[in-house]
Amino acid sequence: MAPEESAEAESLLPSFERRFLAARTLRSFPWQSLEEKLRDSSGPELLLNILQKTVKHPLCVKHPPSVKYARCFLSELIRKHEAVHTEPLDELYEALAEVLMAEEPTQCHRSYLLPSGDSVTLSESTAIISHGTTGLVTWDAALYLAEWAIENPAAFAHRTVLELGSGAGLTGLAICKTCCPSTYVFSDCHSCVLEQLRGNILLNGLSLEPDTTAPERHPGHNAHDAESPRVTVAQLDWDVVTAPELATFRPDVIIAADVLYCPETVVSLVRVLQRLSACLKDQQAPDAYIAFTVRSPETCWLFTSELAVLPAAVHGEALF
Questions:
Q1: DSSP E strands: which ranges in the chain?
Q2: How far are the Cα atoms of 145, 162, 185 from residue 181, in angstroms, in the given order?
Q3: What is the pTM of this model?
Q4: Which of 50, 62, 82, 131 is the most exposed place for a label (fewest CB within 10 A)?
Q5: Contact between residue 155 and residue 216 where contact means Cβ atoms under 8 Å apart
Q6: Which residues contact 287 (CB under 8 A, 6 or more apart)?
């Protein structure tokens, strides 16, 4: 293989690695580019390298994705190989056999590689809806907000961040690992989401403060470790939380991802921001970054309209 062809083949590896570890949809993989590379004599070697970067990756071995996902991925990889090579590749079939013998648990893992070389690994439900909530899996807006935060670390550095509807925890964990906040408050209202969220925080090596509803800021905390934010988890029901409770958070930044899926949640979120603005008093106005997938034009219009008339005490920005 010519040097330039070898370089092109090698460039496929990180694409497969990142997508597989994060359990992205199979159609997002660069299959067409792979097919073109498999037609030369080094095709089997490329497949073995892809196998090591995906199913056999240390992160995947320690924190595996869903059995169904791994099975579908390996089946597609084998189909691509069989389309251009007559000799079977034993390692691919052995890997598939291992997956076929495994039982599908109710929890699986996704791992997101960060530009710093670190990673965020999440335990998630294998079902989109589980225990009556969709908060046990990661949604696209959380990934988008995490990527935006990594590109804009100054928005969070040395500040107190309150996340509303943290879900599985991807956005917050990415911010804690890359943006140097002084304090980060994860929050949600569902008990199962909160339990999984605490587990994911610990899974990623962060220390967790005692559970609390509304933590107060402790000056001088983390003096022993300036690079590690103070991390807490709060049970926060938007419909019943009071202005005094919100005041104890004293956030510099408020974020939320994929919490706007119907008009009712829009109204609830705006009320939280209004209550917060009402109790800020002498505190500098916080910034608010809300990322969401536009599933309904009406819901999107309602939120952007409400955002435009929020009190000046909250600086809001919607990230679509």
A1: 107-113, 119-125, 160-164, 183-188, 230-235, 253-257, 287-291, 315-319
A2: 15, 11, 10
A3: 0.88
A4: 62
A5: no
A6: 155, 252, 253, 254, 315, 317
CA dihedral 143, 147, 148, 151 (to 10 degrees): 170
Q: What angle do CA 311, 182, 279 make, to 5 degrees?
A: 25
* CA neighbor of 123 nearest in space, from 136, 113, 135: 136
213 has pLDDT over 70:
no
Handedness of CA 149, 152, 156, 162 (dihedral sign): negative
Buried b (16+ CB within 10 A) or exposed e, 236-261: bebeebeeeebbebbbbbbbbbbbbe
CA-angle at 178, arms to 173 and 180, nearest 5°: 95
81-100 CB burial, b ≥16 within 10 A, e <16:
beeeeeeebeebeebbeebe
Q: Which of these, 4, 69, 79, 74, lies nearest to 38 by C-alpha position?
A: 79
The token pair that represents 163 in the structure block: 């996340």
Q: How far apart are CA 49 and CA 298, in angstroms?
A: 47
**C-alpha to C-alpha distance for 309 and 312, rounded to whole angstroms:** 8
Contact 96, 78 (CB under 8 A): yes
Give residues with Cβ within 8 angstroms of 304, minimum separation 6. Answer: 318
CA gap 88, 79 in Å, rounded = 11
Cα–Cα distance, 146 to 152 (Å, whole number): 10
- Closest to 150 in 3D by CA, of 170, 124, 123: 170
Name the pLDDT band for 285 (thresholds 50, 70, 90): confident
